[in-house]
Amino acid sequence: MGKVFVQCKSVRSQFRAPGDGVGSPPTPLRALPSFRSAGSGRSRPRPSAAPRRTGDVRRYRTTGADDVAVRTISTGHTFLESPRWHNGDLYVSDFFVNQVLRFPGGEGEPEIVATVPGIPSGLGFLPDGDLLIVSMDDQTVYRNTPSGLVPYADLSGRVPGNLNDMLVDAEGRCYIGGVGHSTGDESDFGPTSLLVVQPDGEVHETIGDLNFPNGIVKPDAGSLLVAETYAGTVRELRLDDHGVPVASSVWAHWGPEIDYFDVKRAHAVLDVEPDGLSLGRDGTLWVADANGHGIARVTKGGAVQEYVDTDDLSVFAALAVGQRLYLCCSPRNHTVDWSKLRSSELRVADIS
C-alpha cells in the first residue's frame, strides 16, 4: 500500500530474472537486467486496456507456455487488501469504507463482516476461528465477536506511525508490520519494526530497520518472509523457538540498492515495489508489484517462473488457494488518491 497523488505514465513490469532457480543464493544488491518473456529477446508488450465487468475473462501470456485466465469477481471498492481464506470463504479489507468483507465460496456477493474504527488492513484467524483485524491509524488489533469488535492488542506507540499487514500463524501468534509514517505526505517516513503478539498477550518489537514492511508469509516453523516495499526486497527472518525473529537476510531483491528511508526517492528508482506475498508451489513465492501491472511467482534470488498480467491495475495483495490465485487490484502506486475513488477490484487467476 502507499499514498499517491501524482499521475505517472504506465510502465511494464520490471520483475527481474537474476537467479538460476530454487536454491540459488540471494542476489547481490545491484541493478539487474530487464525481465524478459521466454524466448522473446525483448520486454513483453502490455496488452491493450479495455473496460472490465464482473465476470469478464481475459487471458494473459505468462513466461510459461500456457495462458492464464483472469476473472473479475467484484468491482467498485476503494482499496482492497489482506485476502484471507477461512472455512471456504474469502475475507478482504476495504480501506476507505472501514469495512471487512466476506466473499462466500470466494465467488459470491460481498457481505460486510465488520466496520472498523480506523482503516482496516491485516486480517487473520485465531485457532478458535475468531477473526482478528488490524486497525491501522489507532494502532489496535480488534477481535470480531458475535457482540461486535473488542480490542485484542493495543499496540499504541510500539511502532512509528500506522500499523499495516498481519499474519496470524497456526498457534495464534500475530506478526504485524508498520508503514513507518503517520502523515499523508509520508514526510516522517523511517525505519520500523515487526511486532510479534504472542497468544498470551506478550508483545515483542523485532528487526527494527524494516523499510515499509508489507506482505508476510510463514513458509515453515523457523522462518518468515516479509516484503519491504521501498527497499525492493523480500527479507527472510529466522525465528527462535518462541516464534520471535532473531536474524534476517535478503531472500530476493530487484533493482538498485536502497540504503535510505525516503518514499518518493525510492519510488522514482525502484524497478519492483514488492507488496503482498503468497506462498507458491515448490518453495516459490508469489510477489505482487505495487508499481507494476501483475504478479510474479519467483524463486529465492528473484528469478521469475511465472507472471500473471493484470493490465490496467496493479496487484497489491494476493492469496493462492488451490488452483486459484486471488488478486486485490487497484490503480498503480503514486498515481491516484484511492480514498476518493471506487476503482479497486477483486480478481482471480486460474493457476496450475
TrEMBL record:
SUPFAM superfamilies: Calcium-dependent phosphotriesterase (SSF63829)
SMP-30/Gluconolactonase/LRE-like region domain: residues covered: 81-311
One matching Pfam family: SGL
Keyword Hydrolase: yes
Gene Ontology MF terms: hydrolase activity
Biased composition (Low complexity): 36-52
Signal peptide start and end residues: none
Keywords: Hydrolase
Region (Disordered): 15-59
Homology family: Belongs to the SMP-30/CGR1 family.
Name recorded for this polypeptide: Gluconolactonase
Organism, as annotated: Streptomyces shenzhenensis
